[in-house]
Amino acid sequence: MLPVVAGQRRFWLVFWRKKDRRRPARGTTDRHALVPIPLTGGVLSGQVRDQQGGALAGTEVSVMDPADRRAVHVETDPFGRFAASLMPGRYRVRVEAGGYQQVTDVVEVSWGEHADMGHIVLGEDPALRPPRPGVFVIDGDHSSVRFVARHIGMSKVYGRFNRLQGQIRIAEPFEESSVDVVIDAASVDTNVAARDTHLRSADFLDVERFPELRFSSVRFVAHGGNRWTVDGDLTLHGLTSDVSLDTTFLGTAEWNGDRVGAVATTQLHREHYTLNWQQTIAKGLPVVGSTIQIQLDVQAIRQS
Fold first, then answer.
1. What pTM, to 2 d.p., does this model score?
2. What residues does the Lipid/polyisoprenoid-binding YceI-like domain cover (predicted)?
3. pLDDT by residue (tens digit) across 24-35?
């Protein structure tokens, strides 16, 4: 065996370093891509941020092909990142998040390549900024409280409360705003008279003893754009429990007065309010699910 001299040793070290830096084979992930590059396509990725540099999680990213058909629809992860595998071609990418101005760009995806859009910055949408301070009265004719419950683990039962009233007080700063809502328990409506009568009885809402449901906020928490959490106390069936409303502010409009709009969702557990009536069928399956999904659509008119 021939001895390896210093010059030869250096040659082989340089050779292997260059070899290690060779381009990965198709079907593998390069050091930049977030998902494997497919054998017949490429990868598109990017990160969405606000103007302060914060990551925008849950941002919707739609990728449209040349025929304006949606090829991909994804949401950004908690770090504002997204990635998708695509066939080679030219695409229009639309990036949108509530409370921010939409961004659209055109990207070319090549075979075996990673198309990195880098940092996509969304600016605040002025139309969805919180309104100036004042008191707004809820418009019961254009507002609703809807609920959804499971029936024997199969279908869903949809209902609503037809009468509600309340006030929204917008403060400066907006985080100090507040909401108070009163709902008429007897106005429950599932479009089935016998079921509505049962819901009004002592088995459920017991409207003779507890004619109202009340919600009073204790805190507004911003999540960027037009998304907020409104924490508060809900009094139902004589008991009070804390509730968090995932809220989306829809903006302001002029129509028979200065109006604001918002939608909110939450879920309630009947047991927290001793609404414990239950029947079971075969294998112990409950007739009525214990978790109730709630959705609020609220429109309010400025009073001051």
1. 0.73
2. 135-301
3. 444 444 444 467
Query: At a CB cut-off of 8 Å and minimum separation 6, what does 51 contact?
Result: 121, 122, 123, 124
pLDDT digit string, tens, across residues 55-101: 999 999 999 999 999 999 999 999 999 999 999 999 999 999 999 99
